Amino acid sequence: MKAWFFGSGHFAALCFRDIAVHLRFERVVTLPPGVGGRGKALRLTPLEEQARLLGFDPFRSSKPSSDPILLEDLAKNPPDLALVIDFSRLIKDPLLNGPRLGCFNIHPSLLPAYRGAAPIQRALMDGQTRTGVTLFRLVERMDAGPIVAQCSVSVGPESTAGELTENLAREGSQIFLKSLECLCGSYAEYIAQDESASTLAPKIDKNEERLCWSQSAETLHNRVRALNPTPGAYCCHSGRRLKVWRTRPLGGYFPVGGRLAGFEEGFPIVACAAGGLILLEVQPEGKSPMTGAEWARGSRIKEGELLE
Asked: Among the four residues 215, 224, 264, 296, which has the most C-beta atoms within 10 Å?
């Protein structure tokens, strides 16, 4: 089995970690380092960091479908298949159909639901209690190819995007490895997606990171866990940003959304359009994460104060 791997993000790195110990990839392709952080230093993609830990030397390309080195290698020594995960670049011909068996993707949703860049975050924002992961063959249209295998998983009411990403990467890696035999033997069953049931999961916009207290406590709780660990939801207190990492929604009526409505065992409760939101873990600007109770004591916030 000759296989290539294309990936860049954290989900790709997790899948690569689980699959590469069973399948030795002849080529590992990722994006060039990007500028990030306050120091504007170059940062390797999560996939490259993981691949190097496992002894691989990834090839960097921002335009793999037209990269002359990749296309020459494809023509001279084509792989049996290519696995493309969390890569943020469209794969086009001749690369798309160059491998003998084609290009495949592990996508963290039950396709055709949540096609796009942020399926895990969007499922959590929507309060889904079940989601899953899909192995499918790539076609020119985004996340629209025929399905080889799927696995459904339950989503707990406190599950964060980070926790769910780990779970789905593990499940997705397993269904790929279990599907290898039928893929190689050319007896895999390909099931067309139901276009009428497709939904989109667009990239998270920066405006979505700020908590809006005119929404319900349940909606805000889902947003907080969807944006944990990155980029993080936030509000403002006394003109400074307060990241909110973990919460618990509370039923009941709390007047004047956005104001501190009281405390529960020391943890602040913020009034929402419906219910209240208990701040369990927060991170004041310039400081490390702490419990909501520790922040409340340190900031000396009082009932009736406004969080914007």
From this structure: 224
Taking domain 3-197, whether its CATH number is 3.40.50.170 is answered by yes
Task: In whole angstroms, give the CA distance from residue 76 to residue 288.
Answer: 52
The amino acid at residue 114 is: Y
Q: Model-level pTM?
A: 0.95
From the list 308, 279, 282, 280, the residue with the least C-alpha distance to 214 is 308
pLDDT band at 69, cuts 50/70/90?
Answer: very high
**Residues 6+ positions from 297 with CB-CB distance below 8 Å:** 266
Token pair in block for residue 188? 């895999």
pLDDT in tens, 27-49: 999 999 988 766 678 899 999 99
Q: How confident is the model at residue 226 (pLDDT cuts 50, 70, 90)?
A: very high
| CATH of the structural domain 206-299, one choice from 3.30.1050.10, 3.30.365.10, 3.10.25.10, 2.160.10.10 | 3.10.25.10
HEC readout, the chain: CCEEEEECCHHHHHHHHHHCCCCCCCEEEECCCEEECCCCEEECCHHHHHHHHCCCCCEECCCHHHCHHHHHHHHHCCCCEEEEECCCCCCCCCCCCCCCCCEEEEECCCCCCCECCCHHHHHHHCCCCEEEEEEEECCCCCCCCCEEEEEEEECCCCCCHHHHHHHHHHHHHHHHHHHHHHHHCCCCCCECCCHHHCCECCCCCHHHHECCCCCCHHHHHHHHHHCCCCCCEEEEECCEEEEEEEEEEECCCCCCCCEEEEEECCEEEEECCCCEEEEEEEEECCCCCEEHHHHHHHHCCCCCCECC
Residue-level pLDDT at 254:
87
